[in-house]
Amino acid sequence: MKRYEQLAELLAADIRTGRLAPGTRLPSIRTITAQHGLSASTAFKAYYQLEEKGLVRAQTRSGYYVTALAAQQLAAPARGAADGKPGKASARAAATVAQRPDVSELVFSVLGAAQEPGMVPLGSAFASPGLFPLQRLGKSLARTSRFLQGPDTVASLPRGDEALRRQIAQRYLGMGMAQPAEELIVTHGALEALNLCLAAVAQPGDLIAVESPGFYASLQALERLKMKALEIPVHPQDGLDLAALADALKRRPVKACWFMTSFQNPTGASLPLEKKKALVALLASHDIPLIEDDVYAELYFGSRGFLPAKAFDRKGLVMHCSSFSKTLAPGYRVGWVSPGRFGQQIERLRLMTTLSASLPAQLAVADYLQYGGYDKHLRKLRHAMESQLSSLLAALARHFPAGVRVSRPAGGYFVWVEFAEGFDALALHQAALAQGISVAPGPIFSARRNFRHCLRLNYGYPWSDGYEAAMQTLGGLARRQSPYR
Amino acid sequence: MKRYEQLAELLAADIRTGRLAPGTRLPSIRTITAQHGLSASTAFKAYYQLEEKGLVRAQTRSGYYVTALAAQQLAAPARGAADGKPGKASARAAATVAQRPDVSELVFSVLGAAQEPGMVPLGSAFASPGLFPLQRLGKSLARTSRFLQGPDTVASLPRGDEALRRQIAQRYLGMGMAQPAEELIVTHGALEALNLCLAAVAQPGDLIAVESPGFYASLQALERLKMKALEIPVHPQDGLDLAALADALKRRPVKACWFMTSFQNPTGASLPLEKKKALVALLASHDIPLIEDDVYAELYFGSRGFLPAKAFDRKGLVMHCSSFSKTLAPGYRVGWVSPGRFGQQIERLRLMTTLSASLPAQLAVADYLQYGGYDKHLRKLRHAMESQLSSLLAALARHFPAGVRVSRPAGGYFVWVEFAEGFDALALHQAALAQGISVAPGPIFSARRNFRHCLRLNYGYPWSDGYEAAMQTLGGLARRQSPYR
To answer: Is the pLDDT confidence value at A139 over 70?
Structure first.
């Protein structure tokens, strides 16, 4: 019996006897390694084994807990450990249907690990808050606090603070798009906007086209709302496979689409303008709504951004969702949607679920947009991201096995790394965690847990020796796997 | 043809010809009365007639809009106007099942009207923001803005700001209840908490026990999540009919309960302590979760508050939801839930839908709770509410028809008014609106649109001559209806 198996058996025994009752937090990795004189890697392996057996569950950012099912599972006949290999990784040429996305457990486990303090956050979904003008934004917050002192302004605002909606409408105008302030709905972050849009246009059982690989939140939303995912392949460079989509729309009753058209998460791909136009025309011909997630829109490299698909929307079918979380105000939870023809449904769903966005955050962001120098900040931020991308790509070239393919995004802060077929990114993820490095393995971006040979890496943090070392470690770990040994 | 019918016909013609296209806002009541030399009451009647025909739709706080369906409806054979009398009003002795709550349209129309500027807000769901310490809270917001300037604090917080959760836990302790800060989940207002709890414990098609009359948001949530409502009668004084609930639980597969146990909306009723204990025991014996909405808890009259049902929960079945929106910080959207055994499900649903509560609002409320003098403010607020209740009850006695029954709440800011059987509160609501007075008619508090002879009145605003006059007008309008003529 290996050491990690011994540790797992020890803990399982404590669970069996009730010394570790359901709901109890397992000792932290640090504690357990100190107690037993084991490496972190061994401790992680033991915890993973317990998790695979369903005895413990990783809870986001707070560790492992004994599950409620542990007692009854231990009473039942022993289950073999899962083989941990759900489905062979392979890019598919056509759209594929998953009856029931079930990606949440894996996502929560991966994201939880990425947020552990001290981890090198290559698997993180966020950029470094140090890149944001938090001080200037704090001043806007302090300044606008006085507007919250009169009874007039506290009345609940149906679609959000008017000044904020005007500022957002102006930014659309700057791109040459007229999105009237009256139509915009300010939301509690883009995530709320996206979820509201989906609930506004589709019902349980409906089939929704999503990207593959795609943002796990779309898969989680489908899971939560009991909808089905139709996965449309995404090319890491120019995005969505339109032919596959067109083909799928002919054959299947797609109710809505949820796509990220620029700087896609996880690939970094962007649809060229002509493809966006064609996408809107295709959906218009089928009368199918598009939920367009455009949260990275402002993080373009070069001199100008990319128009969203919304710019070509003539039928009001496109719901354009974005936020300030990725560019200015993480934690403030200020997003919005330009809802096309679905404004009333979205507004009503919001009134029923969260009522309105938080007022202090809205006023602060509105003030900052007007006086804080957002465009200057964005120029700086874009330069930082672009330089961090160069560093990451250089490190990849230095340390990763030859033949590994990397996407070349034109904005955002993610690259998509494809190893040889047969490579196991989940195993790399686990091995990397034990070394204090988080990565985002491919299967969390697919309802069918495809892309097992792929990784998403984050370059949203200032480059440092620590990053360089982490990339070297990752490259070394990758080389230990069979395709490269 | 009456004048309002003429006006309705005129507008319908404009819709038919496309002069008023789908999505167009109808002229405001003020504009149309000026244009046509009509009374507001006539204009309202015309708009209601168009709404009944489905040609226009009231949009919350912004007026009437031509519906998308208008064109095709006008093309189809003319529909007769609805008779406007859905179901006879009568209190029921046993629980009743509504297959499909469908209360939203009516709720939005009533609430929209209540928020019109200049209305006497007797139908409002809110208290006067002038009663809240907005200046002191604004200072807390300005003060804590500097904590938002370092990168450390912007990391996403799984269950909410720790200082805030500690403050909330301390307030529980003050009531003699131990609700550990680690277990609490800060939400985007109580409404999010309640909706998350419901989604965490029940699925589409499930049967949920709600109060009748009850808070319309619970009915809207069931409607949205495609669950069924089992309406349990509420007595305006001591609340929920426990015998009816016990009986229903024996006969029907109730999946969860959503109750307001103190200062219930709309009746103001509170379950006595022994009834709360019995409720928890009853649900525990059936292993049924309780979503306890306790947002008015701090607004008790007298020297001490009422313990919630949660205080007697030994099995973790009670999810106790509350917020600061009714007592301190409207518009900030800071609520919470003490989730019992459902913490993980609720936390995950939240991570998938809104991620976390807005940080500036959380920090400001936490600071205020620690340094702002919340208890002193609450004492003042309770006295104000109690005195406003006295004024309202006195005005009711002076101006309303004899025999009208009124609840006597021990806290909160709503009274429930029962007219004689056959009284039409929807008609009163419409007549009152035309006089610039909003009320909340009984049917918005029932999935079956019962309680047509009842009203909810709000005493959350400082009493004034305007209120006195409004009560006199309401009394006069009531006397014109057949039971009192």
So the answer is: yes
